[in-house]
Amino acid sequence: MNLTPEDKNELESILQIVTNQIPNYFNLINPSKNDWEIENVEDCVFGMVFNSFVSKSTEYLKNMIIDKNPESDLNSNLEYFETTINFFNAKIPHVKQAIVSVSKS
Fold first, then answer.
1. Measured on CA atoms in the order 58, 93, 2, 6, is the torsion positive or negative?
2. Distances in Å between the alpha carbon of 15 and those of 61, 71, 75?
3. Which residues contact 56 (CB under 8 A, 6 or more apart)?
């Protein structure tokens, strides 16, 4: 699936929204980390960011395709997932930096 510049901007916005939630993820995890036996809080937060981004961006891509072509086949979930994974993979250094920044504060 080829992303237009507008789609890339929207995915950037979604990633920004998700990374802005990192402090909330730490607040959620820190009081419970011993009960949940979490060894690495930063890895857990990374997983939460990843999950949230994939969920939101996949939904965006599906809606965008439906808007452009109401009769389109939405059975290509793997294609949406692959597109979001590829986009996220390119942004991993930014996400990790945001997580480390919050964890040090």
1. positive
2. 14, 28, 24
3. 14, 17, 18
Residues 32-78: tens digit of each pLDDT? 767 777 788 899 999 999 999 999 998 888 888 777 766 666 566 67
Q: What is the pLDDT of residue 77?
A: 63
**Integer CA distances (angstroms), 3 to 11, 46, 60, in order:** 10, 24, 12
The tokens for 85 are: 């994974």
| Cα four-point dihedral sign 60, 65, 67, 68 | positive
By the 10 Å C-beta count (0-12 exposed, 13-18 middle, 19+ buried), 85 is classed as: middle
